[in-house]
Amino acid sequence: MSLRRLKVTEGEPASPNPNVDGDDTIKAKRQTVVLGNGSEVVFIPRLISFDQAWKWFDYLDTQIAWTRPTIRVFGLSCLQPRDTCYVVSPGLPQLVYSGYQPRAYSWDDHPLLKQILEAVHKALPGSSFNSLLLNRYKGGNDYVGWHSDDEKLYGSTPEIASLTLGCDREFFLKKKKPSKTVQERRDEQEPASKRIKRNHADQHSFMLKHGSLLVMRGYTQRDWMHSVPKRSKVEATRINLTFRNVLEEPGATAAK
Ligand SMILES: O=C(O)CCC(=O)C(=O)O
Ligand SMILES: [Fe+2]
């Protein structure tokens, strides 16, 4: 069997890769998953080229001031099961979650983060983010449990764009249990043989690969929860960057 090789002639300019857009991003295929009732997820499995994504990973792994804070869950203090760091534009309300107020770093502390933000803005025309919560999962024991990012400072329909660098991890979405609708209560009164099957998917999973971007939109934080569960066989590190937009406090003047 003969192997076909690409012939590269010395001195000739490398032919531009039609799939690469600028330095960092790939003109990537995207999938939109309509979750219903005004919620949707957009998934771009390969936004950032493989090599670029590893360069970013190496920088962030070594240069970010990672911390593993103590948080409160169901009234108990525990160590957050992943490292974190928070970056936000000046003059915006403080983020507090699980009883923890992260120290707010500036975008100027890491010019690379501004470059990554630019790549994300370019991939999502019309979207705008001013804060970034970074997570570092140092192996399969690190995780994020079921939650929604429904803090008031993001408003009622926050958009959250989540970039993965490093090890692949599974990401799950599950619908919050609504109080039963009138129709559902009626359905329950029907004998089983007459019940209409309403088959709305209320769980979704995505394999978040190196260089991928997952975007949650609309009412996803109000109506759905998400998680990255433990995986006993995973040993490698994953870095995740979640870009969010913090709303200004009403009456506050924007810092220029
Ligand atoms: O690591 C991820 O993909 C998700 C992180 C997340 O949900 C969060 O930081 O709120
Ligand atoms: Fe989240």
From TrEMBL:
SUPFAM superfamilies: Clavaminate synthase-like. Residues 182-199 have a biased composition (Basic and acidic residues). InterPro entries: AlkB-like (IPR027450), AlkB-like_sf (IPR037151), ALKBH2 (IPR032852), Oxoglu/Fe-dep_dioxygenase_dom (IPR005123). Gene3D superfamilies: Alpha-ketoglutarate-dependent dioxygenase AlkB-like. Residues 128-247 form the Fe2OG dioxygenase domain. Transmembrane segments: none annotated. Belongs to the alkB family. This is Fe2OG dioxygenase domain-containing protein. It comes from Malus baccata (Siberian crab apple).
